[in-house]
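Long-time lurker, first post. I've been practising inverse folding by hand and with some scripts of my own, and I keep getting stuck on stretches where the structure tokens seem ambiguous. Below is the full token string for one chain I'm working on. Before anyone asks, I'm not after the true native sequence, just a reasonable design that respects the backbone. If someone could post their per-position residues I'd love to compare against what I wrote down in my notebook.
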């Protein structure tokens, strides 16, 4: 009985050492640091993936770094969609009977005054402005027929790299020209731009409000939800397929055939621009479609 307490002390000592060894082996030499932003744009750092709310992480796509980053280090991008988009309040000028004019920037450096028109399927520019943008040879673009106040016209269909109104900007959008615009109006701000937003106009205070179409809390990529991305892809893909089927099924003149081929190239260009944007915002492949 005299050795009971000494044995107990040795047992406790070996047990404590064993626990210490296990903890040392379980601890990595460098801890993983995760960086993420909440819905208010506040940056957070954590050493545990479980501490990041589920809506701010995506399994298998989080990037980590070893050690706490310095302020000057490159930010770690988490490849998940944002959950909010911006709203914009833009001043407009009354013009005639209930119409409004707004200043826009096209392709980054060309200013224009466009009339807000939800009845126009796309942005329509004056021929003068079209020439300023390099759209001066109709042979280089597909032609579409438009019914206008001045009658039926055939106008070139092309893609604008960007169009910005205030701080609201849309990339890779369809546009055309019309010879009937004169004076202080350079064209129409149509649905290829306005359709990207919910539009409200405060006539009393001469302001246009552009609001996101997505619901609050929806996962977004580049300001747009899954439905928007799927619809954009499908529209361009279906147009290309339809035009190819039309060419293969029907006999047509050389002029019609040439114009149809140019239309396919037009939608192919839109599709490629969309795919490039999707890569920049890390849109999952499952939301995309290809011809």
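-- Answer (accepted) --
I ran through it position by position. Result:
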């Amino acid at each position: 009985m005299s050795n009971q307490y000494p044995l107990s002390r040795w047992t406790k000592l070996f047990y404590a050492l064993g626990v210490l060894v296990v903890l040392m082996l379980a601890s990595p030499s460098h801890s993983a640091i995760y960086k993420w932003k909440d819905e208010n744009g506040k940056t957070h750092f954590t050493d545990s993936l479980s501490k990041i709310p589920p809506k701010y992480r995506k399994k298998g796509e989080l990037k980590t770094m070893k050690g706490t980053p310095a302020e000057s280090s490159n930010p770690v991008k988490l490849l998940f969609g944002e959950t909010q988009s911006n709203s914009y309040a833009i001043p407009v000028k009354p013009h005639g009977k209930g119409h409004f004019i707004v200043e826009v920037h096209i392709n980054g450096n060309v200013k224009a005054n466009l009339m807000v028109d939800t009845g126009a399927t796309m942005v329509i520019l004056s021929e003068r402005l079209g020439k300023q943008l390099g759209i001066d040879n109709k042979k280089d673009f597909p032609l579409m027929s438009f019914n206008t106040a001045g009658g039926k016209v055939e106008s070139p269909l092309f893609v604008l790299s960007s169009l910005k109104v205030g701080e609201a900007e849309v990339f890779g959008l369809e546009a055309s020209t019309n010879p009937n615009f004169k004076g202080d109006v350079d064209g129409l701000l149509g649905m290829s731009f306005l359709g990207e937003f919910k539009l409200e106009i405060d006539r009393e205070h001469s302001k246009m409000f552009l609001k996101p179409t997505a619901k609050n809390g929806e996962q977004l990529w580049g300001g747009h939800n899954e439905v928007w991305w799927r619809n954009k892809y499908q529209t361009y893909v279906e147009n290309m397929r339809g035009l190819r089927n039309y060419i293969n099924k029907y006999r047509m003149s050389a002029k019609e055939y040439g114009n149809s081929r140019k239309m396919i190239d037009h939608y192919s260009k839109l599709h490629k621009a969309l795919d490039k944007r999707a890569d920049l915002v890390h849109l999952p492949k499952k939301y995309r479609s290809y011809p």
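A couple of notes from the structure itself: The longest strand covers residues 151-165. The chain has three domains: 4-66, 88-211, 226-287. Happy to go over any region you disagree with.
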